[in-house]
UniProtKB/TrEMBL annotation, chain A:
Similarity remark: Belongs to the ABC transporter superfamily.
Protein localization: Cell membrane
Pfam families found in the cross-reference section: ABC_tran (PF00005), oligo_HPY (PF08352)
One GO term describing the cellular component: plasma membrane
UniProt name for this protein: Stage 0 sporulation protein KD
Keyword Lipid biosynthesis found: no
TrEMBL record, chain B:
Membrane topology: Multi-pass membrane protein
Residue ranges occupied by any ABC transmembrane type-1 domain in the UniProt entry: 94-295
PANTHER family: DIPEPTIDE TRANSPORT SYSTEM PERMEASE PROTEIN DPPB-RELATED
Principal subcellular localisation of the protein: membrane
GO cellular component, one term: plasma membrane
Location relative to the cell: Cell membrane
Keywords, sorted A to Z: Cell membrane, Membrane, Transmembrane, Transmembrane helix, Transport
Family under the similarity heading: Belongs to the binding-protein-dependent transport system permease family.
Organism of origin: Virgibacillus massiliensis
BP-aspect Gene Ontology terms: transmembrane transport
Protein name per UniProt: Dipeptide transport system permease protein DppB
Annotated TM spans: 9-30, 100-121, 133-152, 172-191, 226-248, 278-298
């Protein structure tokens, strides 16, 4: 499988009056052509910052990519000048935002906002742009596209607006789509429809998708692989099956335990105690140590090395270390 | 839309009627008459004059006569300068006042918006501080102080511009500057604050994610939204510019309507007071109406026809 995007050792910091926030602290992942990678984690873990970094949309100042590379089709995006980056945004990489209520400009018609993307990047007539816009409206399932083009965002419902946002993101036929919590602001019924739409679009266009979310239900539905992020680091990554059925990191296990399941009755949901660490001064060792029920002395001092469970399944946890496994085995025998 | 306009026109007429009535009440309640200053007029002459201008009639008849003159837009001749009618005076003075007013608005809006946008884009930068410092000065200095200062420095000391009168473009620069600085400063501050707010909106980020160029984003996506509050205060600014023209016209000896307006009150020249008041107030009311219409065009969320169709 071809790799379309490879992020290596990405660091992003934000300088504020209170100090420097290390929002993303060495993130590595890759994305294969045509697959959907979900990045999950709780609020403030750095998932949105990671996606904005790929688009180079981090407001600078205060934000800055301090280290690492983002290689998209053999080009390092972190090294490109802003002008070249502009020709990639919207054309090769597109983005969908969380809240469709605010992602559309209230004073411009849907048609204008849909067409300005293509017209910016391709030399086409307004008629061609219009037919392209109509085609996209059709693709995302908006009835009466000809009339709808002339309307303003406030004349659309939330779900319809998110469809418009998706159409806008796809109009230049990008190869990579970054969806930052695309269903969080929608009703549950609409959520399902939008997720289905993602599936259909991926089938129709072969676009690769990075899905940022904290909703494991969404992940279960459309992701191929899952990266779990915590305190600015990816702590576990694997295929959907590996993460859901064989989670290794205590944080991933905790996340899965805190989600209600239909097939298990009578079991209480277990929240993860405590709060994520302060990213002004992140801990040297594993950031989950303070909340981890299996924390060992080493966890607090040294960040764990990445261990590979399989070709696709990697986890950053000291429990995977041979020494820890022996220790656990020994204590099990004692009991 | 048509229904809304009709409804607004009705309200405008009522507003105008209230203004006219209040003006009439004020007019008759100020002591004195147009003929007070005439020396040596005896009682009989005075009575004849009053009879000629219907000033001896009961107030209610006078009031009705005024209403009639307004409806027909024929205010008759001025009492103090019987050789010209009120319409003559308005016809001569209005184009000049209008020229001054319109150019002031254009200068104030263009420079105010530009200043505000740059201040917002260079937020917390030297340009921002300079622009906003300038704006604070512009708001705090009254236009008549600025006008005299400009005359003293630029016209008298440096002799760059003419001191007064309204003859060539060079004559227009000082009065327009004096009159436009205040509104410009208000617009600049407002534009800056709304622009800063708009620039953090998701749709701006979305526009960036589409790969649009920074200027396109600012002009097409940000400015239109940032200008909505500016349009809102345009009504108030128009009123202040309009009243400002009285003072500025006086200082720069501009032969506009302001002169007639002020003089007519001093001299109790009733037809002129009535004519200028009706004219100024209708002008202002119509301008405010146009501002409302413009607001509806700029912001599609405001549905004008619905408001009228309740």
């Amino acid at each position: 499988m071809d790799t379309i995007l490879e992020v290596k050792n990405l660091h992003v910091t934000f300088s504020t009056y209170g100090g420097t926030i290390k929002a993303v602290r060495g993130v590595d992942f890759h994305l294969n052509k045509g697959e959907t990678l979900a990045i999950v984690g709780e609020s403030g873990c750095g998932k949105s910052v990671t996606s904005n970094a790929i688009m180079r949309l981090i407001p600078d100042p205060p934000g800055k990519i301090t280290n690492g590379t983002i290689v998209f089709k053999d080009k390092d995006l972190t090294a490109l000048p802003e002008k070249t980056m502009r020709s990639i945004r919207g054309v090769d990489i597109s983005m969908i935002f969380q809240d469709p209520m605010t992602a559309l400009n209230p004073t411009l018609t849907i048609g204008t906002q849909l067409m300005e993307g293509v017209r910016q990047h391709h030399r086409i007539t307004s008629d061609q742009a219009k037919s392209k816009a109509l085609e996209m409206m059709h693709l995302v399932g908006i009835p009466n596209p000809t009339e709808r083009l002339k309307q303003y965002p406030h004349q659309f419902s939330g779900g319809m607006r998110q469809r418009i946002v998706i159409a806008m993101a796809l109009i230049c036929e990008p190869e990579l789509l970054i969806a930052d919590e695309p269903t969080t602001a929608l009703d549950v019924t609409i959520q399902a429809q939008i997720l289905e739409l993602f599936d259909e679009i991926q089938e129709a266009t072969g676009v690769s998708i990075i899905l940022i979310t904290h909703d494991l239900g969404v992940v279960a539905k459309i992701a191929d692989r899952i990266a779990v992020m915590y305190a600015g680091k990816i702590i576990e990554v694997g295929t959907k099956r590996e993460i859901f059925y064989d989670p290794q990191h205590p944080y991933t296990k905790g996340l899965l335990k805190s989600v209600p399941r239909l097939d298990v009755t009578g079991e209480k949901l277990v929240p993860i105690d405590g709060t994520p660490p302060d990213l002004f001064s992140p801990p040297k060792g594993c950031p989950f140590t303070a909340r981890c029920p299996f924390a060992m002395e080493v966890c607090d001092k040294v960040y764990p090395v990445t261990t590979e469970q399989s070709d696709t399944h990697k986890v950053d946890c000291w429990l995977q270390d041979e020494r820890a496994k022996q220790l656990l085995a020994a204590s099990a025998i004692k009991q | 839309m048509l229904r809304y306009i009709l409804k607004r026109l009705m309200i405008m007429l009522v507003t105008l009627w209230i203004i006219v009535t209040l003006t009439f009440i004020l007019m008759v309640s100020i002591p004195g008459s147009p003929f007070n200053s005439e020396r040596g007029t005896n009682e009989a002459v005075q009575a004849n004059l009053e009879a000629h201008y219907n000033l001896d009639e009961p107030y209610i008849i006078q009031y009705l006569l005024y209403l009639k003159s307004i409806v027909t837009f024929d205010f008759g001749p001025s009492i103090k300068q019987p050789s010209q009618t009120v319409n003559d005076m308005l016809g001569r003075g209005f184009p000049i006042s209008f020229e001054l007013g319109i150019m002031t608005i254009i200068v104030a809006v263009i420079s105010g918006v530009t200043l505000g946008v740059f201040a917002a884009l260079k937020h917390n930068n030297v340009i921002d501080y300079l622009a906003m410092g300038f704006a604070v000065l512009g708001i705090s200095i009254p236009n008549f102080v600025l006008a005299t200062l400009l005359i003293q420095q630029l016209a008298v000391n440096l002799e760059i511009f003419p001191v007064a009168r309204w003859l060539s473009p060079a004559h227009m620069i000082l009065p327009i500057t004096a009159l436009a600085t205040g509104p410009m400063a208000i617009i600049a501050r407002l534009t800056r604050s709304t622009m800063l707010e708009v620039l953090t909106q998701d749709y701006i980020k979305m526009a960036r994610a589409k790969g649009l160029s920074p200027w396109k984003i600012i002009i097409k996506h940000a400015l239109k939204n940032a200008l909505l509050p500016v349009v809102t205060i345009m009504g108030t600014l128009l009123a202040s510019i309009l009243t400002g023209t009285f003072v500025i016209e006086k200082i720069f000896a501009v032969p506009g309507m302001g002169k007639y307006f002020v003089e007519s009150i001093n001299q109790r020249d009733y037809p002129v007071i009535m004519g200028t008041t009706v004219f100024y107030s209708s002008f202002l009311i119509i301008m405010l109406f146009l501002v409302d219409i413009a607001y509806g065009i700029l912001d599609p969320r405001i549905k004008i026809h619905k408001k009228g169709g309740e």
